[in-house]
Structure formats: C-alpha cells, structure tokens
Amino acid sequence: MAIRRRIDPDQGRSAVEMWLTQARLDAAPADRSTTATAVRFTLEELASRAEGNSVEVRVPPFGVTQCIAGPRHTRGTPPNVVETSAEVWLSLATGRTDFATALAAGDIDASGTRADLGDFLPLFTPAELEARA
C-alpha cells in the first residue's frame, strides 16, 4: 500500500538540496522551514521505499514515520525505534554519513532488533541531487 504524500516531491527534493548546499558550505544551517520540509519529505521517502510498520523513525520536532515490513505494534511505545536530530537524519538521508558511524558516535538512539536502517540509507546520494539540479 502506497503512503500518502503530504510534501510535494519537487518541493521536498528542493528543500533537501538547499539543506545539503548549506551543509557543504559549513554555513549557517538552513532555515527551520527548509529543514522541516526536507525532514518530512525524506521520512515520507523512507516509508515509501521500506513499507511497513515494524520500525518507528522519529526526528523531533519535525516528524515521525513507520517503516520496514515485519510485526506491527499497536499500543504503547513500539519495540523498534530510531530517533535522531534533523541534522543527523538529513546527513544519513543524503549520504553525508552512514548509519553505523552515526550510531557508534551516539548521534542516533536505536532500540529493537529491527532498528538498523543501514540497508535503506542513503535515500539520495549527493550525485543524484546534483544531477537533478
């Protein structure tokens, strides 16, 4: 079942590109609206590529999604949770860092046997985003 998109894909990719440009320049972070759009779009993209409900990915305060096929949780805190900041999430989604490195550095809180997103990231490589520009 396809997820319902709330972020227009063109606007989402543009927000990701703007965030990535700011990150590469080591400039001031992208504005809150751009960051929020980029996070929400990449969470939607993850959910569409790894459909399911066994892992909850949280990027407070911007968004949350469920993904990866497997047992579905219905009440309380899910058994498989990944939580991180927007900066780290977008770095993972764009290939600026990988899941194992961020986890080892303590930049990600992950619990549960299915809470490894390494096989699903990055969502977009820098080369893909540059080719689109």
Topology (SSEs and partners):
Blueprint: H1 9-24, H2 32-49, E1 55-59, E2 63-67, E3 81-84, H3 86-93, H4 99-104, E4 108-111, H5 126-132
Parallel strand pairs: 1-3
Antiparallel strand pairs: 1-2, 3-4
Helix pairs in contact: 1-2, 2-3
Keyword list:
alpha+beta, single chain, 133 residues
Please tell me about this protein's structure.
This protein is α+β, with helices and mostly antiparallel strands and 133 residues long. 41% of the residues lie in helices and 14% in strands. The chain has helices at 9-24, 32-49, 86-93, 99-104, 126-132; strands spanning 55-59, 63-67, 81-84, 108-111. Strands 2-1-3-4 form a 4-stranded mixed beta sheet. Helix 1 (9-24) crosses helix 2 and helix 2 crosses helix 3 (86-93). It starts with 8 loop residues before the first helix and ends with a helix. The relative contact order is 0.17.
